[in-house]
């Protein structure tokens, strides 16, 4: 993904729904010499109100969702002096005044501490506090997600892990409680998703606690799917608490996912017996109805179910009801309504969204992490996060929000490196020097097998050759190739993959992708499918340059920087101490030079949660670790 690429044709779809006599296009005029937009006609909340399901909350960082709205969209805060200002509209019913943000934030950075509700309920969202399942959240970076809407510059709300917003039901007005019906939609990104729980938008508990099934009714667009799900994902799903559902069950083969750069996701729930899920490309076309039917039933014998619902009425954006905040998303607009919306109204809203012509150079980071190579460049796929078969794999400037620069190890089979749902592949399954690298459907052939070596190279076992940057060229767009392994800098890459050990267990971090110092490093069942939300903390990157082993942005560390036998391993902020230095050996052991001892599984115990330790190097199976 790179700045110079294009994102395809721009399409505008107009829909005429005579049954409701609704005007769905968003018409605007540009005043000569001013660049300001005149008021739009019917917005999504006007449409829902006309259909008898009025908005009770409406949020957007890009535009007005009512034709008459002329208030603030969100607040920004400067890092330099802590000052805040509200970002409003160019005109009533129009588009965000991004120029006001740019001027206010010039020369410093800004965050978004508040997102304003455009409805008369004033259900404004502020940064979510800590909860049972996650620490306190952070505000979004205000400039992380530049886009255009109807040709106007705007900013989306980029929410990586631990960025979320919330309002408690003691403050929220008009939201569904108990078994009351409600509907909601959002425009989010199908490229900035992961398998972590849970970047939701919708109705959640009064407190940041899991209070049982049916106490949530929220949209979830993610890879957090049931095993056997159809398509590649991400999937538009309902988080109903203690379960994320594609339909009546966690798996619905009719739901094949929505992976476009901008996705319209929709959920409606009558509160008593039925719910529905819809999704579509926010840049063109209509919504697909992925499911409409009965709510899930109690299948685990705990006596709780989803019929009727037990809604508490708080609102969340970017986390789960108990503040599970390990999911990611990019948010552009979304509303919650009273009542179960009609299909005609849903279709009119989708047509209105499409008419906005959302465009963006990059719409999120996606799951996985970067593979850095020579010159500090990143392994990238040609095109703009499109990633079709045979797309060239190349070097490019690293971009934090580039989905096609985020790679996962072993997700689509042993020894694979994948992005955008496809695998790093040797063209034609070739083995010769100079064979070009490409992206291709994961199929298990030898040309898709890659093993990280102790010297930092990445070897293809079928050919015996290594991932290579031709002649060490670091220009953007340099295509990567296979070449004889030679240990040169042109073959040094840093890639995150699972580390396997005795009993085919994986090196894991205690907790569920918790980005916290002091978390125990242990062995655990390998969780290498997108259905497992703990995958991120089993993806480790070995850097042969500084000898660190990293995951979740932190380093494998010896507790207290100790050197004695039995010293426990933990995750800690990278700081360059000797207890964070590791050198893989030819026999599979991992040496800590400061102590002269090795990474060790105590007594070869393969039980889940067995803590790793430091111990005298002995070459035995409990000290053999494989980066693959």
From TrEMBL:
Which InterPro entries does the UniProt entry name for this protein?
A-L-arabinofuranosidase_B_cat, ABFB, ConA-like_dom_sf, Ricin_B-like_lectins, Ricin_B_lectin
Write down the PROSITE patterns for this protein, in alphabetical order.
RICIN_B_LECTIN
Q: Which GO terms describe its molecular function?
A: alpha-L-arabinofuranosidase activity
Does this UniProt record's set of keywords contain Heme? no
Sorted alphabetically, the keyword list is:
Disulfide bond, Signal
Catalytic residue positions? 241 (nucleophile), 322 (proton donor)
**Domain (Ricin B lectin) ranges:** 366-494, 496-628
**Would the keyword Disulfide bond turn up in this protein's UniProt record?**
yes
Q: Signal peptide location in the record?
A: 1-29
Enumerate the SUPFAM superfamilies for this protein: Concanavalin A-like lectins/glucanases, Ricin B-like lectins
Query: Which biological process terms from the Gene Ontology are attached to this UniProt entry?
Result: arabinan metabolic process; arabinose metabolic process; pectin catabolic process
**Cysteine pairs bridged by disulfides in the record:** 45-55, 105-110, 197-198
Q: What is this protein called?
A: Alpha-L-arabinofuranosidase
Q: What organism is the protein native to?
A: Curtobacterium luteum
């Amino acid at each position: 993904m790179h700045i110079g690429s294009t994102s395809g044709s721009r399409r505008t779809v107009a829909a005429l729904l005579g049954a409701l006599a609704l005007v769905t296009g968003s018409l605007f005029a540009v005043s000569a010499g001013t660049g300001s937009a005149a008021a739009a006609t019917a917005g999504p909340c006007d449409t829902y109100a006309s259909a008898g399901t009025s908005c009770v909350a409406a949020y957007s960082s890009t535009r007005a969702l009512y034709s008459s709205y002329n208030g603030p969209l969100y607040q920004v805060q400067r890092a330099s002096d802590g000052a805040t200002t509200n970002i409003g509209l160019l005109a009533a019913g129009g588009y965000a005044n991004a120029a006001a943000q740019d001027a206010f934030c010039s020369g410093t950075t800004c965050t978004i501490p508040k997102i304003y509700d455009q409805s008369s309920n004033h259900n404004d969202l502020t940064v979510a506090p800590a909860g049972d399942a996650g620490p306190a959240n952070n505000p979004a970076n205000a400039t992380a997600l530049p886009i255009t809407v109807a040709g106007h510059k705007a900013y989306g709300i980029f929410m990586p892990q631990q960025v979320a917003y919330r309002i408690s039901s003691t403050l929220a007005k008009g939201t569904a409680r108990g078994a009351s019906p409600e509907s909601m939609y959002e425009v989010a990104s199908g490229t900035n998703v992961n398998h972590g729980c849970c970047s939701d938008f919708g109705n959640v508990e009064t407190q940041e606690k899991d209070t049982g099934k049916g106490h949530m009714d929220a949209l979830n667009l993610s890879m957090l799917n049931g095993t056997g799900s159809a398509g590649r994902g991400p999937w538009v799903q309902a988080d109903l608490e203690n379960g994320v559902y594609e339909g009546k069950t966690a798996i619905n083969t009719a739901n094949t996912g929505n992976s476009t750069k901008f996705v319209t996701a929709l959920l409606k729930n009558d509160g008593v017996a039925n719910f529905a899920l819809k999704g579509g490309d926010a840049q063109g076309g209509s919504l697909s109805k992925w499911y409409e039917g009965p709510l899930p039933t109690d299948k685990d014998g705990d006596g709780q179910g989803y019929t009727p619902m037990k809604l508490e009425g708080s609102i969340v954006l970017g986390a789960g009801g108990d503040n599970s905040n390990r999911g990611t998303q990019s948010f552009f607009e979304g509303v919650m309504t009273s009542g179960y919306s009609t299909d005609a109204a849903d279709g009119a809203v989708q047509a209105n969204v499409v008419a906005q012509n959302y465009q963006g150079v990059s719409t999120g980071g996606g799951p996985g992490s970067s593979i850095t190579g020579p010159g500090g460049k990143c392994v990238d796929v040609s095109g703009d996060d499109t990633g079709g078969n045979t797309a060239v794999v190349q070097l490019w400037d690293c971009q934090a929000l580039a989905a096609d620069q985020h790679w996962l190890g072993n997700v689509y089979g042993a020894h694979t490196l994948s992005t955008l749902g496809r695998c790093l592949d040797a063209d034609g399954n070739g083995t010769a020097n100079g064979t070009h690298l490409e992206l291709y459907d994961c199929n298990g052939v030898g040309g898709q097998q890659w093993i990280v070596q102790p010297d930092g190279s990445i070897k293809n076992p079928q050919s015996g050759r290594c991932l290579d940057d031709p002649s060490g060229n670091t220009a953007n767009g340099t295509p990567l190739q296979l070449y004889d392994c030679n240990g040169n800098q042109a073959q040094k890459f840093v890639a995150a993959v699972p580390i396997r050990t005795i009993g085919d267990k994986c090196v894991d971090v205690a907790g569920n992708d918790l980005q916290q110092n002091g978390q125990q490093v242990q062995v655990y069942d390998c969780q290498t499918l997108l259905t497992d939300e703990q995958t991120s903390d089993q993806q480790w990157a070995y850097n042969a340059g500084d000898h660190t082993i990293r995951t979740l942005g932190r380093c494998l560390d010896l507790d207290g920087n100790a050197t004695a036998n039995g010293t426990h391993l933990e995750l800690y902020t990278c700081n360059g101490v000797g207890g964070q230095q590791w050198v893989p050996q030819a026999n599979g052991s991992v040496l800590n030079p400061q102590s002269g001892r090795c990474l060790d599984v105590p007594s070869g115990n393969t039980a889940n949660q067995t803590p790793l330790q430091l111990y005298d190097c002995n070459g035995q199976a409990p000290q053999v670790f494989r980066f693959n």
